[in-house]
Hints:
The chain is mainly α. The chain contains 17 helices and no strands. 76% of the residues lie in helices and 0% in strands.
Amino acid sequence: xxxxxxxxxxxxDFRGKPGFRHIQVFLLxxxxxxxxxxxxxxxxxxxAMTDDNNENYFDWSMQSQSVILSSFTWGYVVSQFxxxxxxxxxxxxxxxxxxxxxNSLLSFVTPFGANLGxxxxxxxCRVIQGFGQGILMPCMHHLIGKWAPLEEKSxxxxxxxxxxxxxxxxxxxxxGYLVSAFGWxxxxxxxGIMGTxxxxxxxxxxxxxxxxxxxxxxKERFYIQTSLGQVGGHKRxxxxxxxxxxxxxxxxxxxxxxxxxxxxWTLMTLIPSYLSQVQGVSIKSNGLMxxxxxxxxxxxxxxxxxxxxxxxRKKWCSLTxxxxxxxSIGFFGPGFALIGLSYAPADVTIAVVLLTVVMILNAGHxxxxxxxxxxxxxxxxxxxxxxxxxxxxxxxxxAPLAAGLILIDETDANDxxxxxxxxxxxxxxxxxxxxxxxxxxxxxxxxxxxxxGKIIKxxx
Length: 460
């Protein structure tokens, strides 16, 4: 690609200033938000669906509810592993559109499934939704690698990923009011309508990369491509499977992602039940109380992102050390805070404050291991994300199931203490592994052709 004199620019013309890339980033933020709204809506819905004070309720045991809460992940893990390769082959836009379409359709179907086939058919709907959404994170990594200039990567990545917590918070915040106004089916119908609207919006304005966008200016396109070293296009490279699987830094990303997903799924699926059964919070208040921790992590994720970019730009720490510092805040912090929560008195205010502290500190992971995929090998970030997220979600299937086994009496604070202790140990132990073996240094297998060329030169 060539640029004429009138298209020339200075980096300062774009750094930190609005452009079409920010519209694209906002769309990805919304998709991430709605993805996690679809994912988390069942945790509030199942409380209302099993409440015998409601006219249309189901007498499902805690074990059956645990199966429902985990069933989304069964389908989710299946499409995780090929998700990155599919994104690299077909582009992120098509796959994200399929993700939104499948999840919106199944949201409309779920209430009918519950009435026709009970919890078993609800599980089936959730499995299909999970399968449709398994490509979400690999696509996000792939698209961030295409749209985020290096100078803005921490901020853009943090903003997009924070959509997960915003979506969960929004879902929990409005669910109680939707149940009061329309009954529990209102949760699913609202998700379906809003997901369909976002799908239409993304079809019009979304793009796989600056090269394929018809809305972006030539100057801004060239700025992004130059920053990423992709002027003239980006070739499809063969995935270096052997080097990837024998890389300890990559293995450390898998371990870290497993810890994050276990903690997230434990809190996301069980906070409403904990507040309802232990703290005696009503469904409407439950939504607000459950949303507060996620609103907190959404808000505090931005200072983390800006601070990480500042540390890297000022070269106060290396990229690897910066990622490890923020990841330690994101893992050690919640690990110790959950121990405090397990011994807190039965007071709803104290419980919500401690849960909020857990989520605020967890914001560190956005600028920790999560961006490590793009740091290490931007050419294969989507593939790496599919693998790490796939393993993480295989493990997270067991988070609500383990809680169901531990919670012999779901109103007993001692049983809940065991659940929190388990999550705490996973957070702390997995972060220690990441601190020892993790790295954000660009890997030589990021560009297989160059690596092969160096070997040939040595031989010659």
